[in-house]
Amino acid sequence: MTFNKRSIISLCILAIILAAVYYFFTIRGLTYIWHWEAIPGMLFYHGGKSSADAVPRLRMGVLMIGFMMTLKISIVSTVFGIIIGTVVGICRLSKEPVTRGLSAAYVELIRNTPLLVQIFIIYFFVGSMLRLSAFTAGAAALSIFAGAYVAEIVRAGIQSIHKGQMEASRSLGMTYAQAMRHIILPQAFKRIIPPLAGQFISLIKDSSLVSVIALADLTYQGWQAVARTYHSFEIYFTVAFLYLIMTFTLSMATQYVERRLAISD
């Protein structure tokens, strides 16, 4: 994966902004004593599982454990969000009024209510009845939330394909499902990659809201670390940087896929 000029310029600008913030916080502004030496141990440390373990090993600290949890729930929510959004997006174009109405109602209901409220409802109401874990409830809420937005993206992508292609596919003897699978959706997904990437980048950042149900994600672990050490600036800057790593990696991967698809075209 290569970096293009725009990505390099963006990284340089970000580095300048961070350097300026650090300068004004330490020299020109807030008289704060930084304790960056505490951060590496929150990422990785050498130690055993217990005091009886004589062989110390490199282990993940609290922030890296939270990072892995955020990455895990983001991947699960992205996969199920794509599945839900694709199905609902196709249903939005159905000629059956009931199917079209139910899918539209789902999209409007989810898009017009706060994600935090949805997490509370799924965790405390649905989760208590079905005995869902915090991770399952959080992943379900994020998947349902992302699915509504993906559905509109998929619907718009399908509608951007000229309807003559569907008519030509049906004239060749394909069923509606075959034409959608082999002709329409492959072309539509090429067009909706950028908005899908933007949605899933937002999903990674929105995943921080699952910390309110005590799921030990990156934000939650950051809160706990601040409560123990009081090194708030160092920890929050590190948490923000870890989120940046995830979102920037996804952005670069999306640009790579777009270039590969452009070559194939």
Overall description:
It is a single chain. The protein is 76% helix and 3% strand. Strands 1-2 form a two-stranded antiparallel ribbon. The two termini are 20 Å apart. Among the domains are: 1-34; 68-215, MetI-like (MetI-like fold, Orthogonal Bundle). The radius of gyration is 23 Å and the shape is globular. The mean pLDDT is 87. It contains ten helices and two strands. It has 265 residues and is mainly alpha-helical. α6 (134-159) packs across α8.
**What topology, given as strand order, has the largest sheet?**
1-2
**Oligomerization:** single chain
Based on Cα principal axes, name the global outline.
globular
DSSP summary, beta strand count: 2
Strand content: under 5%
End-to-end distance, in Å?
A: 20 Å
Sequence of secondary-structure elements:
HHEEHHHHHHHH
Mean pLDDT: 87
Share of helical residues: over 70%
The largest sheet, given as strand count, sense and whether it forms a barrel, is: 2 strands, antiparallel
Gyration radius over CA: 23 Å
The name of the CATH superfamily of the domain at 68-215 reads: MetI-like
CATH class category label of the domain at 68-215: Mainly Alpha
Which second-level CATH architecture of the domain at 68-215 applies? Orthogonal Bundle
DSSP summary: helix tally: 10
List low-pLDDT spans.
none
Q: Give the helix/strand class.
A: mainly alpha
Summarize, please:
The protein is mostly helical.
Task: Compile the SSE list and pairings.
Elements: H1 5-28, H2 39-43, E1 44-47, E2 57-60, H3 62-91, H4 97-111, H5 115-130, H6 134-159, H7 163-171, H8 176-206, H9 218-229, H10 232-264
Antiparallel strand pairs: 1-2
Helix pairs in contact: 3-6, 3-9, 4-6, 5-6, 6-8, 7-8, 8-10, 9-10
